[in-house]
Specification:
mainly alpha, 3 helices, rod-shaped
C-alpha cells in the first residue's frame, strides 16, 4: 500500500490590515445584502413620505393663513373697507336652525 502524503500548510505572506478590513467588509455586505437593500428601501420610503408630509402641512398652513387674513378683511371677496360688526356671532345661523327644528 502507498501512504498518502499530507501537505503541510505553506506559510503565507502576512495580510495587511487594510486588506483584512476590506475582506471583512466584503463578507459582511455579501451575507447581509438583502437586509441592507431593505434598509435602503425603507430609508428611501421614509424620505418620500417625509417630503410629502412637509409639503402638505406647508400648503395647509398657507391656506389657513390666507383664510384668516380674508376673514379679518371682511369676507372672501377681499374687498377693502368692510369689517364685521362688533356683535357678529359666527354660529348665529346654526343657532337659528337648531331653534327652528325644536
Amino acid at each position: 500500500m502507498t501512504t498518502m502524503q499530507v501537505q503541510k500548510p505553506q506559510p503565507s505572506e502576512p495580510v495587511s490590515l487594510g486588506r483584512r478590513i476590506a475582506n471583512a467588509l466584503t463578507d459582511f455586505i455579501h451575507r447581509f445584502r438583502f437586509v441592507l437593500w431593505g434598509v435602503l428601501a425603507s430609508a428611501l420610503a421614509f424620505l418620500v413620505v417625509w417630503f410629502a408630509w412637509s409639503e402638505i402641512t406647508r400648503r395647509q398652513s398657507a391656506t389657513a393663513t390666507r383664510q384668516v387674513e380674508q376673514a379679518q378683511r371682511g369676507g372672501s371677496s377681499g374687498g377693502g373697507g368692510t369689517t364685521a360688526p362688533a356683535t357678529h356671532r359666527p354660529f348665529a345661523d346654526l343657532e337659528a336652525l337648531l331653534k327652528g327644528k325644536r
